[in-house]
Task: inverse folding
């Protein structure tokens, strides 16, 4: 009964827009919100990145990751790194750091393992979405990559709160469904996720694929289905069949190969 009361309080807080964010995400969140401004200034962005050592290190690491360093020429400064990856990809990195920090502060061993698995699922889903958008669904690849990075933000938030309230997530029937959707929606608002991306993510719950796959939601559904690492928060949920969606085995093999390289590269660059 007490656990149900605790969970109800968390959902009520989310519904009121009062999600509890750890102080460790503040620098990345400030950078993300600054980059969401279409009039953001390059010098201001560079100052914000330089003002936080972890952000600076991750920005340079991302710029040197294989997904952005096709030439193999390393960059060694924040300015060159920002110029290489661009504002859109820096925005994605900042969002990834926000999401990842929720898992990084978890103390319980079981929940930490779940958070690590959720991050690996996130990295693979984002990389797959990036490739699928480019090769299959005619969806902007950078938008697909970003959506993949933040699509489990609500899950990371729940895991971080479960670390404070033991047993909170023991019964999926208590938190999956409408409560999960409320928390996911509010996380999207708190992180200033653009509405088209937010809608695609929220609509994933209970969604089914109808051929041909088109748009951001279908891109994410396919990416989640193809991810070699399942979400620990979706145990027991069946995956839709891929029949009629990726009939070309050579194309499927290419998608899996390219995305695996991208996921490894991203995980190394963004690991915090």
Result:
């Amino acid at each position: 009964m007490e656990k149900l009361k605790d969970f109800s309080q968390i959902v009520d807080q989310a519904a009121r827009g009062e999600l509890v964010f750890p102080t460790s995400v503040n620098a990345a969140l400030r950078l993300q919100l600054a980059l969401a401004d279409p009039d953001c200034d390059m010098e201001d962005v560079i100052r914000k990145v330089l003002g936080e050592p972890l952000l600076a290190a991750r920005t340079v690491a991302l710029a040197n990751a294989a997904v952005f360093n096709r030439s193999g020429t390393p960059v060694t400064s924040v300015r060159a790194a920002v110029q290489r990856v661009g504002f859109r990809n820096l925005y994605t990195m900042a969002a990834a750091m926000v999401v990842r920090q929720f898992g990084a502060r978890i103390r319980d061993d079981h929940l930490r393992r779940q958070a690590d698995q959720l991050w690996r699922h996130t990295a693979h889903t984002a990389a797959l979405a990036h490739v699928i958008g480019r090769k299959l669904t005619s969806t902007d690849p950078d938008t697909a990559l970003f959506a993949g990075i933040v699509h489990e933000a609500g899950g990371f938030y729940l895991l971080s709160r479960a670390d404070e309230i033991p047993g909170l997530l023991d019964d999926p029937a208590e938190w999956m469904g409408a409560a999960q959707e409320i928390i996911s929606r509010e996380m999207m608002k708190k992180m200033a996720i653009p509405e088209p991306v937010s809608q695609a993510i929220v609509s994933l719950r209970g969604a089914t694929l109808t051929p041909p796959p088109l748009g951001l939601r279908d891109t994410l559904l396919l990416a989640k289905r193809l991810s070699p690492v399942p979400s620990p928060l979706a145990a027991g949920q069946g995956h839709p069949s891929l029949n009629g969606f990726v009939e070309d085995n050579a194309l499927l093999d290419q998608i899996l190969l390219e995305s695996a390289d991208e996921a490894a590269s991203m995980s190394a660059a963004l690991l915090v």
Observations:
- The domain at 2-270 is CATH 1.10.3210.10 (Hypothetical protein af1432).
